[in-house]
Amino acid sequence: MKKSLFKFVAVLVLVFVCLALGGCGESRTPYAATYKSVEPFAGKGHVELELKENGEATWTHLGKTLKLKWRVSDGKIWLYTKEGGLLIVTPAEEGKILSADITGEWHPGCPPEQCVLFKRVETGG
Question: Where are the domains of the chain?
């Protein structure tokens, strides 16, 4: 009987911990949208970045799509590739403009020569 009660309490604690961790971080809602690069990427066409409310994202360039995961923390958008790569994106103008640092290293700002600037694509009509 004590073992069953212990297991029940352990599972209950685990559920609460998972709920607490899942609720951490900032809301994705202000940034969930489709964005397009302002300039052609590497001189070969624009990038489309779609950030979905569920934390999934896509980066599409020249017909090839890379699936990503994303979260918001400390006012920045963190994009993760399946392979472990990371892009840090800085939002501006309430999420209408995104600045993606593509150096692969963390910088307090986005180095201009290594930065992809995105603008939110307005939907509807």
Answer: 27-120
Span 95-110, pLDDT tens digits: 999 999 887 776 666 7
| Burial degree of 87 (CB within 10 A; 0-12, 13-18, 19+) | buried
The CA-atom distances, in angstroms, between 112 and each of 41, 42, 101 are 13, 14, 9
Note the pTM of the prediction, 2 decimals.
0.74
User: End-to-end distance of the chain based on CA atoms, in angstroms?
Assistant: 64
Q: Which helix (H) or strand (E) holds 16?
A: helix 2-22
Task: Answer whether 88's CB lies under 8 Å from 104's CB.
Answer: no
CA distance 68 to 82: 7
Beta bridge partners of 33: 51
C-alpha separations of 100 from 21, 35, 39, 47, 125 in Å: 26, 12, 13, 11, 28
Q: What is the DSSP letter of 42?
A: G
**Domain 27-120, classified CATH 1.25.10, yes or no:** no
Residues 6 or more apart in contact with residue 80 via CB below 8 angstroms: 68, 69, 70, 86
